[in-house]
Amino acid sequence: MRLKSGSVLFYIFLVFVFFAAACGKADKKPGECSSVPENTGVPALQENPSLQTEKGYDLPVDVRQRKEAEEDCKRMMELIREIYIQADKGDASNTVLSDEAMLKMRDKMKDTNRSVIITQIYAGMENYENMDKFLKECAKGESGSAVVYEIHSGGGIGRLKFLFDGTNMYVFCVSMVWDEETEPKTAYSSCTRIKEWKYTDKGWFCYELCVPEPPEVTEIMDGSGMIRVKPIADENRKVTEKCLFGLGYQGNNLLCSDWDMEHMEDLDYNGLYEYLYAMKYGEKFEPDRYTNGIPQELFESLMMEFLPVTGEELQKYAVFDEKNNVYRWERLGCSNYAPTYFGTSFPEVTQIKKNEDGTVTLTVDAVCRMILCDDAVMTHELTVRFSEDGSFRYLGNKILNNGKNDIPEYQYRINRQFYTDLRCDEPVLHSFQKPKSDKTASVISAALLPSASQSLRMFVAKKQVLPPASKNPTNQPFTS
From CA 476, how far away is CA 192, in angstroms rounded? Predict the structure, then answer.
């Protein structure tokens, strides 16, 4: 049976379309960033390049640009290879290097005169001058670019190239890790428009990346982040790490409430214990050692070492079981704590004032990287007295500028009134013990919450929350 000439032409056309489509996909690998093919000016985002450009993420990148960035990353990885090989990587599947190893890597990389940061809260940016100059020029509307390297806790690095065209700012990121043969390989790369940004007087670069929004995704995503460009003053950093870093703003209210030596009754002593324990002994508090509560002597001696409070006052202000002579303690979890963005903030001393009575007043800003992206969500003054042996005592805290109105109300870890109303003959309950009577209940922590102090997050468009859409959605593929 012979086909008609029209049918033959139709089938030839179908075959041509099939092979053309197959060839177009042959070189594309899963997970690869979109790029612009060499020797053409056509964007790689073929489906709807104008729509993707308007959204501001997964932007097309020139092949030459990507190759240059990857080669640059490899050279930097080679510089730190021996440090990575010799570093203690532990037995866990996810490698986490020590602070000492990361500092060695930073020192090696900074000799190249590149801007370098590491994932430590108070670590400053090495060779920050170029980034500082770039951001100040951007604020004036001047176009330019700057490259920053970030050393990750796993031993890999990220190369972040920021570019400002006079209107919009972009970041082109390439992340590299070590493979099983300790050879550098590209983990991912991305180009994203920065929706909003600011450079604060304190030296914080705050930004919001364009990320997918509903209904494109089912989860709300956060594209916010912060980078400290200008380093914190060395004296401020040391006192911050010594007196405040271990406390934070989650799980206790020592830094986020007003109190002094005459007004100690509102501090959450039961919540505060684990933080002071870690500061004194240099190790995490292990609640399993005290399943029936914290012994009175241990609890009171630690509190009186750091605070101007007596044992009698502690028994009155804290949740204390007189019959068993123990202070109750509960794990911080979702059943006794409602997570807030403010809780993820970390303290940063901005000013140190020595008083005539020998005390020191520290002016402190609460810095929040998540969502709020604010280098001073709240400012407060913490008064401390230092001793010659290096120890210190907290004497009072005062929130400035009506800052209480800008933070959520503190949630006590243990309901004081609830335990006050319990019958005296009831046994002490641990967080995971079931009550023996209907009149008694314990606050069960379903899950531990992350520490208030988190490492610097890699600022790449990942699945996280976002403010309203940009008023100026126009942007162009990343080139220089």
Answer: 10
